[in-house]
Design a protein that fits this description.
232 residues, alpha/beta, 6-stranded parallel β-sheet, 6 strands, globular
């Protein structure tokens, strides 16, 4: 196994197969691990509330059980950005850097409710009635995760790269203020670190690892280079 250890953190509901277009190239850079959280992919459903601290400590225990020593480079997509954010604050000595992929920022959760259109509310209601709402699910407990991030120590001084899709998903259905808030929150993620950097994946929506895998690969390579420079 090579160094660094690159940890791929899925979005909510996104299984590990979602990394198939970048996995082989990332393996050339180090040891890569992808995993499914409870309720995602073929993993069993959660039996306890999936709040931020539970998801962080479950991931940390998994890495240690696999004998993967820190520090880790976290690559986090969508909702996984909240997990990476809290992980870095809770265990700064264990994280060498983060690549956020069109990731959820803490302020996104409140903005989604504030700017939600009537059509979006109706669609959400239909989805909940058809598929149900897991009382233990991670999105159900997102407010608790956001609160934990707010209460956690300051974000560490580590390299941060933010890959943002240039074509927001369902932009036609999303109110203009919501799109503006989302764009501002992506910049806020980049500003978590003094050396933070945003990269716009111009041809991508919410899944740059699908539509522009080369952009994601370059971002990870850049993050690794920056962590090496930071140590020297």
């Amino acid at each position: 196994m090579g160094s660094p250890t690159i940890v791929l953190i899925n979005g909510s509901g996104g299984p590990i197969e979602g990394w198939h277009r970048v996995f082989a190239d990332l393996e050339k850079m180090g040891t890569v691990i992808a995993y499914n959280r409870p309720g995602i992919g073929k993993s069993t459903k959660p039996t306890s509330p999936q709040t931020g601290e539970v998801m962080v400590e479950t991931l940390r225990a998994l890495l240690l059980a696999l004998d993967l020593a820190p520090p880790y480079l976290l690559v986090a997509h969508s909702f996984g950005g909240l997990i990476a954010n809290l992980f870095a604050r809770s265990h700064p000595q264990d994280v060498s850097g983060i690549v956020f992929l069109d990731a959820t920022a803490p302020a996104d959760i409140a903005a989604m409710t504030e700017f939600e259109s009537r059509t979006q509310r109706v669609l959400k209601g239909v989805v909940d009635r058809v598929f149900g709402n897991d009382p233990f699910g991670e999105t159900t407990h997102a407010p608790r995760t956001i609160a934990l991030i707010a209460q956690a120590p300051s974000f560490p001084d580590i390299p941060v790269l933010v890959v943002t899709g240039g074509k927001p998903a369902m932009a036609w259905l999303t109110p203009t203020p919501a799109l503006a808030a989302r764009a501002a929150h992506q910049l806020q993620l980049a500003s978590l670190s003094p050396s933070g950097m945003q990269i716009v994946a111009a041809k991508s929506g919410h899944f740059p690892q699908f539509s522009e895998p080369e952009v994601v690969i370059r971002a990870v390579r850049e993050a690794i280079a920056r962590t090496i420079n930071a140590r020297n």
